[in-house]
Specification:
The structure holds two protein chains of two kinds. Chain A is built from 20 helices and 14 strands. Chain A is α/β, with parallel strands linked by helices. Chain A is globular. By secondary structure, chain B is an all-alpha fold. Chain B has a single domain, classed as MetI-like (MetI-like fold), CATH 1.10.3720. In chain B, 73% of the residues lie in helices and 0% in strands. The longest helix of chain B is centred in the first third of the chain and has 33 residues. Chain B is globular, with a radius of gyration of 24 Å. The chains are: A alpha/beta, B mainly alpha. Chains A and B meet through helix 4, helix 19 and helix 20 of A and helix 12 of B.
Chain lengths: 455, 294
């Protein structure tokens, strides 16, 4: 019974996600979430690699380029070996340090030294479509059309997702919440603040923030701030095309002020906190909540499985009357083929191979644990972890939609610049309007270089 | 029979290969960098840079990040130079006297010079760790736990933590140059001064300082330039963080270059070159006036 319910909730979640993606897909919305991290870091070397790829008549050597942290994953290596075994083709790996990856990749493509396959975060913000060759084959029938729409231009599909979708929301300690008499979900900013005040009065740190990583502070902003663009998509378009500066939009500025108001609920020494410290606090109940992606459940489980079960996952908003279960529509791992690749046909076959169920699962296996989340492909599902199930149950029970987070509404060609800098500046005390103006100068500079419309 | 012209100019033939290599790998890139500073050359349109005049420089000076990087670089340079020179000179004077185990001290002081700054950064990261680091552990042990700090993550003190490491790294070569300068001063001067009744302070003021001014000049210039050039120490220890509190010229240029903004990064590099040149020549002129002939 419980399993059936979980299944129906999962299916409902997939449907909700698909519907929402469909709504934004026509605009090719995508974004960049800041730090590049292998999304859906997943599981298991046990998965057998299957695939339709037949042994090649004349084996070729494909060059496969990816960032260090992703390429080191056992799942990636296992999948590459599975491909070699299935086809007879060889894979030559080109591994580039994470922080140099996009730069090196674009330089190689611009200088006609492109590899055959690229492994990167999905989104035209990372690699513009004009650098890429359209992907064809059975994948076009298998991929969820609403997911495909995000990286499709003029009917041509350019980047294939190779990791499940995940939600960005709030991890919370259910026991602490029960003790404080707080009911979830907290559907408005006011409800959230009231809950945080209660927690503060109890002597619990309401919000944990692993400030040692510079991207963590952007989570409440990206998740909670989505309401601004969800209610006014035109504003996202205007900001993306330089018709209005973020600081000149009263609703954007108000959202930012609300975001900054959360600071009083975060421990003062957050800048020296790293995730293991926050994780321990959440498990022990000294910290009540943390904004962190749902794929991290495995880390909590590894630390203390029993206590991890007592954690829940919920959506969050800084708005008065809008809440959604937010996800980054473009940020997960993807593969694509450079327009000047030497073995385009074989590279295309490789992508079709890598996105089949067993290979997809193998690719997303980490330390023997399969990845979890929402599958971008129609012909198979991927398991949900405890956080994802918790979110799925909550949004199903409360009729909460799934929708992109804040950056998901911006124009696909818009370059973010150093987004995290202005977020961290505000956390360090810079006035919101000033921080937004500084961010504007930074992204205007990059968009001018990229010749983005309006800049 | 070798032509007379070749015989007369044969030394030139020996330097031609070096000149060609230097030109290809140093002079040409410098001019390319100079030209790039006036273009929008970027990874987005790698093969189609267009001339943008002074736009990159305008953007630079409107960027709070760049202005902060200038401030941090200057603060780093001033404090680094003052402490390295003062401590280096003092240590060299001590080591120039008959001190027990002075060779061992010299080795210890010089050792950071042969270690890569990134490796040293890793060591200092461990030392500065707020929870497990020996510095905070020691402070807590002796009852001064209130002085324990988040050395690298507190924006107000992170730069000073980097400077402390930079001073330690910079001392070695400075002491060696000062020692060479001190050892070049003839003992006769000191003997004469002793006969005339001069004390230690007067000997330093009227003999040691003027006669080692050339060492002081070269050391100050080298330390100043290394301070302005600081990169490895910051990159390894904080990478410009927390929240840009330790961003310096080097990390700023690196970050923009990594973003693929080559023209913009080249403009920052050009400004940086001008600042280093002006500082160096000004200081050189100043010290030249203070040197004495003997």
């Amino acid at each position: 019974m419980a399993n059936k319910r979980k299944l129906s909730v999962s299916l409902g979640l997939i449907l909700a996600l698909s519907t929402t993606l469909a709504a934004c897909g026509g605009n090719n919305n995508n974004n960049a979430a800041g730090s590049a991290s292998p999304s859906g870091s997943a599981p298991a070397s046990s998965a057998a690699a299957s695939g339709s790829a037949a042994p090649a008549k004349d084996p070729v050597e494909l060059t496969f380029m990816g960032p260090t942290s992703w390429m080191a994953g056992s799942g990636v290596q296992d999948m590459l070996k599975a491909y070699e075994a299935a086809t007879g083709n060889k894979i030559k790996q080109e591994v580039v340090p994470d922080d140099q990856y996009l730069n090196v990749m674009k330089t190689k493509m611009s200088t006609n030294d492109a590899p055959d396959l690229l492994f990167h975060n999905k989104g035209f913000n990372y690699i513009p479509a004009n650098f890429l060759e359209p992907i064809t084959g059975p994948i076009l029938d298998r991929i969820d059309p609403t997911v495909a729409a995000v990286t499709t231009i003029d009917g041509k599909f350019y980047q294939a997702p190779v990791a499940p979708h995940s939600f960005y929301g709030v991890i919370y300690n259910t026991e602490v919440f029960d003790k404080a008499g707080i009911k979830v979900p907290l559907k408005t900013y006011q409800e959230f603040i009231a809950a945080a005040d209660k927690l503060l009065a109890m002597g619990v740190t309401p919000l944990g923030l692993a400030g040692k990583s510079t991207w963590t502070a952007n989570q409440p902003y990206l998740v909670g701030g989505a309401y601004v663009f969800a209610k006014n998509p035109e504003l996202a378009k205007q900001i993306s095309t330089n018709k209005i500066k973020p600081a000149d939009s009263p609703e954007y500025l108000e959202m930012i002020k609300r975001y900054v108001s959360l600071k009083k609920y975060i421990a003062k020494d957050y800048l020296s906190s790293d995730q293991p410290i926050i994780q321990k606090g959440l498990l022990d109940g000294t910290i009540a909540m943390e904004f962190y992606p749902d794929v991290t459940y495995g880390d909590f489980e590894k630390e203390d499985a029993a206590k991890a079960e007592k954690l829940g996952y919920m959506p969050f908003t800084l708005g008065d009357d809008y809440i959604a279960a937010t996800f980054p529509p473009t940020d997960e791992a993807a593969m694509s083929i450079p327009v000047n690749a030497k073995h385009k046909a074989e590279a295309n076959d490789f992508i079709n191979f890598a996105t089949q169920k067993d290979n997809f699962i193998l690719l997303n296996t980490k330390d023997g644990t399969p990845g979890s989340g929402i599958s971008p492909y129609k012909d198979f599902t991927v398991g949900l972890n405890h956080f994802q199930q918790s979110m799925a149950d909550m949004i199903a029970a409360n009729d909460i939609p799934a929708a992109p987070f804040l950056l998901g509404y911006l124009d696909p060609n818009f370059q973010l610049g150093d987004f995290n800098k202005h977020v961290n500046d505000m956390m360090a005390g810079k006035a919101p309007a000033q921080a937004l103006d500084d961010w504007y100068k930074d992204y205007a500079k990059v968009n001018k270089a990229a010749k983005t419309e309006g800049f | 029979m070798v032509p007379k012209m070749i015989l007369r100019n044969y030394p030139i033939l020996f330097i031609v290969p070096a000149v060609i290599l230097y030109t290809v790998f140093s002079v040409v890139p410098s001019f390319v960098g100079l030209a790039a500073a006036f273009t929008d050359w970027s990874t987005f349109y790698l093969l189609k840079p267009t001339y943008v005049g002074l736009q990159n420089f305008k953007d630079l000076f409107e960027s709070t990040g760049f202005l902060a990087a200038i401030r941090h670089t200057l603060l780093y340079t001033v404090l680094h130079t003052v402490f390295v020179i003062a401590l280096g000179y003092g240590l060299a004077i001590i080591l120039n006297n008959q001190v027990k185990f002075k060779n061992a001290y010299r080795v210890i002081i010089f050792s950071p010079v042969v270690i890569n700054p990134l490796v040293i950064s890793l060591v200092f990261s461990a030392l500065y760790n707020p929870t497990y680091g020996p510095i905070n552990a020691f402070l807590r042990k002796i009852g001064l736990g209130s002085l324990a700090q988040n050395w690298l993550t507190e924006p107000k003190i992170a730069l000073y933590s980097v400077i402390i490491m930079g001073v330690w790294v910079g001392l070695g070569s400075t002491v060696v140059i000062f020692l060479a300068g001190l050892q070049s001063v003839s003992a006769d001067f000191y003997e004469s001064a002793t006969i005339d009744g001069a004390g230690g302070l007067k000997k330093f003021r009227y003999i040691t300082l003027p006669l080692t001014m050339h060492a002081l000049t070269i050391n100050t210039l080298l330390v100043l330039i290394s301070g302005l050039n600081v990169f490895g120490e910051v990159y390894g220890l904080t990478n410009g963080g927390p929240n840009g509190a330790t961003e310096v010229f080097g990390t700023f240029i690196f970050a923009n270059f990594s973003q693929g903004l080559y023209g913009y990064a080249a403009a920052a590099g050009l400004v940086f070159t001008v600042v280093v040149s002006i500082s160096s020549f000004t200081l050189l002129g100043l010290f030249r006036k203070m040197e004495v002939e003997y």
